[in-house]
Amino acid sequence: MRLAPVFLAAFLGVASVPAAPALAQPILSVGGDALEVQADKLEVDVTEGVALLTGNVSLAKGGLKVNCPRIDLKFDQTPHVNWARGSGGVLADVKGVHAEAPEVELDLKKQILELRGGVRLTRGQGWLQAEKAMIDIATAKVTLTQVKGSIPVSPKGP
């Protein structure tokens, strides 16, 4: 089916959108771009290079916005965030594409975003469900496993 790649391309076309201006002083950065975070509570263990954000957590980088009850972060000594995992029911938006999943993991070193545990992607009237969605941010390649969905077609054809 040729429409699935079109839907996925529309989703992936936003993966490399430049970062939006920060609304507040960024506390963590990734390369030259700020990773904006907000939460009710932040716990940081500088020695271990980990942080835990809980309660009404939001994370934003460029066109990617993630909301969930908890985000775990790992950072290096610079400190640059190199890994994040959101859990407890994740809502993510990327330029018109809405994703829902129990868990999301972002590996910034490998440039991989993975949604797990039953994923639902929607855009307009189209939707896809999968057990797992893996997005290679650098190449904009998406891999979905155990997929089903509904993709609207033009009444006039191709």
UniProtKB/TrEMBL annotation:
InterPro entries: OstA-like_N. It comes from Pendulispora brunnea. Keywords: Signal. This is Organic solvent tolerance-like N-terminal domain-containing protein. Residues 1-24 form the signal peptide. Pfam families: LptD_N. Residues 36-139 form the Organic solvent tolerance-like N-terminal domain. The keyword Transcription does not apply. The keyword Calcium does not apply.
